[in-house]
Amino acid sequence: MLKRYNHALRRLHETATAHLTSTPEWEVKCALGLHLWLDAEHATAIRSRVAELREPPLHLDGVPDNALERAFSEAIRARSTAELLAAVYGVLRAELLTALRDHLAALNPLFDHPTRRLLCTIAREQEEMLEWGGAALAVFGESPHAIAFAAHVRVYLAAAGGIAGTEPIPASELPPPRSDGGRYEMDTRPRRDARFRDGLNNSGKVSKRHRDSSLPLEERALALLYKRLLEMDVPEMMAPIIYRAEGKPWAYYADMSRQLWDEARHPMMGEVGLTALDVPFYRYPLDRKFSELLNSRFTPLEAHLILWKIEQSLMPRTTGKRAEWELARDGGNELMIAMQDYDWADEVLHAQIGRRHLEPAFASPAERKAASEEVWDRYLAIIDAWAAEHADDEPWWERFVADVRAARLQ
Ligand SMILES: [Fe+2]
Ligand SMILES: [Fe+2]
Fold first, then answer.
1. Counting beta carbons within 10 angstroms of the beta carbon of residue 382, is it exposed (0 to 12), middle (13 to 18) or buried (19 or more)?
2. CA of 325: how far to CAs of 267, 333, 340, 346, in Å?
3. Cα–Cα distance for residue pair 153/92, rounded to 1 Å
4. Distance 13 CA to ligand 1 centre (A)
5. Averaging pLDDT over each range in 24-28, 197-201, 364-368, which range is the top one?
6. What's the pLDDT score for residue 332?
7. pLDDT tens, 111-121?
8. Which pLDDT score, from 0 to 100, does residue 268 have?
9. Is pLDDT above 80 for 106?
10. Which residues have CB less than 5 Å away from ligand 2 (the ion)?
11. How many Cβ atoms are within 10 Å of 399's Cβ, its own excluded?
12. What is the DSSP-derived secondary structure letter of residue 185?
């Protein structure tokens, strides 16, 4: 049973990862970032419990039941946010919670206490995820497509006897599948919803501004806050790295999922900061050149090398995260000081995750260094060409600063 939960959690994790980048709605993107990390955490905990239960071989990366696998292969082929929500929260995750609760009711709380403790924690977090899912489904309304797709996935899950595998119905009654049996190919094109306009506008140059000591402190601190908000392009570029990296050890997916969720928290911190200033966070351009270019012009390994290179560049004392935190401290805004403090802690962890998982991908440190330098030069050339192409983008920064000042005076 635990192996079935592990499989379900992995596939839920994979489904969220495959859809995060192309899902336009900001709040859904953020939730997918959180939920894929929680599913990964739950799978990690279950895997170590299975290893304690004296039933080798463990086969934790295999498929415990082809019928169960088919239900997830259908769900990942959702064609809209409404379909995705209906299949994942309306059917699969809800059924997972039912299975966990039945399991908790049936197990011996003394003999199998470690499993009880584990499943109680997992069930509580899955319930929170489902609460969000229910609220999101209510917002999206009951579109006929989404209802039909949820029913489709439900029939496939019934053919497996649900997540727990009890009383499967015959597969002969299944409707034609969307899956062709191959691996689902994710859409790596980053999308944002209708609130976000001019999403390639390159005129903000916020990284330059927060480092520019000739600017007033208030404006530099605002640029730093805006830089956090812009980070949505990081989960958008990390999701394809994780999804397309097939056959890695589980620790890779677990670590990278934590990092992805951190990178979704960072723009959410920016959102909180702008909301506190009474400025809608989507009013001015959030350029997504990073995810657009990395997802279309680089392999997953190259994109990971670029991300790691950037994160390493954030570690030096005078130019990196410490300097950002000091700028926030000098600006005196308590919210921003706390934000930069935690952002800094996250980035130290990310630099370590990069080292841990990129080192084994190369035969030697020298080879890794050479590959990293080659890809970095190519990235800079592409970014420069892109910036030149967008040189005439309409300037908006001054309007944004004026907007914040006007909101403060009200
Ligand atoms: Fe970040
Ligand atoms: Fe990071």
1. middle
2. 16, 11, 5, 13
3. 8
4. 21
5. 24-28
6. 86
7. 999 999 999 99
8. 98
9. yes
10. 347, 350
11. 12
12. P
Q: Using alpha carbons, select from 225, 230, 185 the residue that is nearest to residue 337.
A: 225
Using CA atoms, how far apart are residues 103 and 165, in angstroms rounded to an integer? 12
For 330, the token pair is 């000098």
Q: What separation in Å is there between the alpha carbon of 266 and the centre of ligand 1? A: 6
Does domain 2-173 match CATH 1.20.1260? yes
Taking only the tens place, the pLDDT of each residue in 49-73 is: 999 998 778 889 999 999 999 999 9
206-409, which class in CATH? mainly alpha
Residue type, 67: A
Task: Kindly give the residue spans of alpha helices, DSSP state H, lying in 61-180.
Answer: 66-75, 81-87, 93-106, 113-140, 144-159
Query: Model confidence over 207-220: pLDDT tens digits?
Result: 999 999 999 999 99
CA distance 311 to 350: 7
Q: Report the residue count for the chain.
A: 410
For residue 280, report the distance from its CA to the centre of ligand 1, in Å.
21
Q: Look at residues 230, 209, 227 and name the one whose alpha carbon lies nearest to residue 218.
A: 209
Residues of the chain with CATH 1.20.1260: 2-173, 206-409
